[in-house]
Amino acid sequence: MDPRSIEELIEVIKEFFPDNTSIVVSDTKEYLYYQPSKKIDLKIKPGDAIPEGSATHKALDYGQKINSFIEPDVFGVPYYGMSIPLMEEGEAKGAITAIFPQKPSPFLTNYITIKIDDCWYPVKHNEVIYLETQLRKTFVKTMSKEGYHRLNLSDLELFLSPDTFIRCHRSYIVNIDFIDEIQPDSHSTFLLIMKDGTRIPVSQRYASYFRRSLGF
């Protein structure tokens, strides 16, 4: 990951998190960038190896976004981490992690704003049926509206509650509340029939995580 890409990613992330958030970016083995906050500083330095048990390590190991409280034996300081792997062709190439002194309130906002033609519309998270990667933007579908968000799917995933939303494919995140049926499918392991009739694949990469998360 080149320095310019990291700087651009950090500028986007800063817009969503309060000042008491530390931000760290890594590849698969070591940290590349670290911006501490006044409230919490893990003393990470670029080039430091990613320790086992850290939020970043968990996200890379699972290949999924994680929200987790991390005990003080990892960095000497307890923290709450929100980490998401940066995927490329189905493989994790790095991760970006937001570090909080305590668990943040469930989402900084309960709305996601989508663009339809030349206007913007805020919609509640719980109204979103699914999100899909389309032309480097994210297509957002609700029961009454559909439009685009400027962030790509992986960046946007960081701000969605894992209690409601689940990644099932590199191109899709679905709202569990809108899954009507889960069917076996030879091409994608599972096929989701959403309540609006949309058919969404669960890829082999995400199948075990999907089953474990939904308990079947």
TrEMBL record:
It holds the Pfam family LytTR. GO terms for molecular function: DNA binding; phosphorelay response regulator activity. Residues 112-216 form the HTH LytTR-type domain. It comes from the Bacteria. This is LytR family transcriptional regulator. It comes from Kurthia sibirica.
